[in-house]
Amino acid sequence: MTETIDHTPSTARQADPFPVKGMDAVVFAVGNAKQAAHYYSTAFGMKRVAYSGPENGSRETASYVLVSGGARFVFTSVVKPATEYGHFLAEHVAAHGDGVIDLAIEVPDARAAYEYATAHGATGLEEPHEVKDEYGTVVLAAIATYGRTRHTLVERAGYDGPYLPGYVPADPVVEPGPRRFQAIDHCVGNVELGRMDEWVGFYNSVMGFTNMKEFVGDDIATEYSALMSKVVADGSRKVKFPLNEPAAGKKKSQIDEYLEFYGGPGVQHIALATNDIVATVRAMRAAGVQFLDTPDSYYDALGEWVGETRVPLAELRELKILADRDEDGYLLQIFTKPVQDRPTVFFEMIERHGSMGFGKGNFKALFEAIEREQEKRGNL
Length: 380
Prior knowledge:
By secondary structure, the protein is α+β, with helices and mostly antiparallel strands. Helix content is 25%, strand content 32%. The strands form two sheets. A nine-stranded mixed β-sheet has the order 6-7-8-5-1-4-3-2-9. Strands 11-12-13-10-14-17-16-15 form an eight-stranded mixed β-sheet. A hairpin with a 2-residue loop joins strand 15 (322-326) and strand 16. Pfam families: Glyoxalase.
């Protein structure tokens, strides 16, 4: 495996041509937003805070906004596809199943961000415009990225409403318990064979992102399949986008399977940062979330190279949590199975202790776990 790490001094990042404040929202197009909101409330412990639908003037779509700490998910489905956007949502769900349509990014100046991005080659989808209500004003713009995914650029410094104009405050779907995660750590995209470097270049040029890490070579492969991955991030490391493409192997890789069942490039998984992965996994398992299994043999030698972690080895083994260590510290992580019938979108729970890596020591164990699930589905 070749891994490159960006050691750009922090002073060099101060002149960021495309400053960001963080992830604003992950927006999903789904077949039934009401049921999705219930699932993520009960299984992921999120809290509904806002709603838009026919009851408050949105005649074609219904949207539910859920939060957990600084992480915000929006689930939107079509009531009737009467407008161009309604038709787009309906067609998106029909073609791709439930999936991410928007990785929205909060920026200090949406007009400047849009101007920079489009001047450097981005396809503009929505020019900067203001939307207002009694809570204030938001400036929005949007650009295209891989597949049918977009980045909405959100400037919300002048707004104190529950989400965006057009949304009204909403009570939780169920009474929320202890928070299970507090932020979006990174969002992973799968792209077609041969196009990873193209999209890395897109983020370098269009958004001024830098290359944070790179994973290529035999160590990011199993006996049957392989992939290549590069990570781009903004200068502050608040927004991190790993990008994967398939690589030649004996059988169908997880990226190939995703591209086939999703019908093209898209968001593969979302990593959620937690301060207590043990409590998170126990609560989510109890609520019915299914996680990938890890054989006991993985843990037999884990302590020899990972060393001591906050969670005892026996508990890691019991809960099937993975661990990895690098020069900066260690991390604990676990991956769900796909959360819809199509083997596409899944989630990662991650607890960091110094390490800003992505669990490279776990890649083989993770890929083998995914392959076991692919084999059950008849897709390996």
